[in-house]
Amino acid sequence: MREDERDQAAPPAGESGLHGEGDQEHDQAAPPAGESGLHGEGDQEHDQAAPPAGESGLHGEGEEGAGAGRSGASKPPGPDGEGEEGAGAAWSERPPAPAVLRSSLIEFELRAEQEASLPRYVGSTLRGAIGVALRERSCVTGAPTCDRCPHWQTCHYGRVWESPPQPEGPRRFADPPRAYVLDPFHYGARSRFLPGDRLAFRLRVFGPAIDRVPWIILAIRDAALSGLGRGRARFRLIRASAFDDQREPLLLYANDRMAETARLGVQELRPVRTRELSEPGRVTLQLETPLHLTDQGATSRAVDPVVFSTRLLDRFDALLHFYEDATSGIDRMHIRRIAGLARVVHHDLIPDAFRRHSQRAGRVPMEGLLGRVTFDHVVPELFGLWKLGEVLHVGKQTTFGFGKVRVLVEHVI
CA 106 to CA 113: how far, in whole Å? Predict the structure, then answer.
């Protein structure tokens, strides 16, 4: 298809009337009406929404001006969101802005149409398949990569799924964090699916990606029908749901159609003190998917509280910087000091390693730590930051679902 023909392309009729702020700027036509009334404009209508149970303590109730600076854009990107080193102090020159990161959680359920054999960690398979489908729906140039693409800031694929590197600024800022995290429900639990079996996973999106959720849903539908895994086994998207302020599911897609009136629940993320820990105490990090941290260029073989805390803060600041044009204002050195007070009292960690298949790079090694590690002398301020890790994930390969943690208070008798 010629580029002038691509510029007029739109999804097939009846797929979506869904749009968000900024879609009108896209070089390609918006999805035609008929599939949904879901949209992302009017953030003030979403401020009361919350995610499912278990992700409390990370909202921004009472935060004024949370919509400021949400254009997301053309300023130099923040540090790598997958765990590379980066100093939050580099952004201190920007005037303070509300440190609130918008986020939405969407749950998907697929049904196997054929017998399927998937990798034990399906996050890598899902990311690749969804990316291909989203690119096919979004790309107006047909170029093999997004490098130097003039349309990437308004492209659903380039802006959300790949976020191409930026040539300006220090090298550690060259790879901005992606605007999403895949969250398979059970790490390594299942690889063989028979016809009729269900495959469920969650996708969390940040900032401007919220307005592109309708396109992501349709890309997941396309990816499932095109086939997953080496055998390209066909799946069908059964439903996609978000959550309202009562943590009840909001149906976005069912019966092969987008819902007509559903809205996304939008959560506002920032570190806050919670009632779970009111004074210094004992806290366990439960590593539910491999945690891959680096320290001075080397892979960490243990969970150091200082490294964990600074990588998490770097990720939060990078997401704010790139997608909300804001900074947390959190003193990185202060976080290092209070994290240095924490002491390991117990750990039960095991290394996990495997290889994933990449169309670009072939067999790519993946590694990280699983298990539990318990710290004493964790102060409430640090606990509030750690709770963000339940939503943002921490370390490398977060887009695949790596670095998923649960932060639990241990009550010492």
Answer: 22
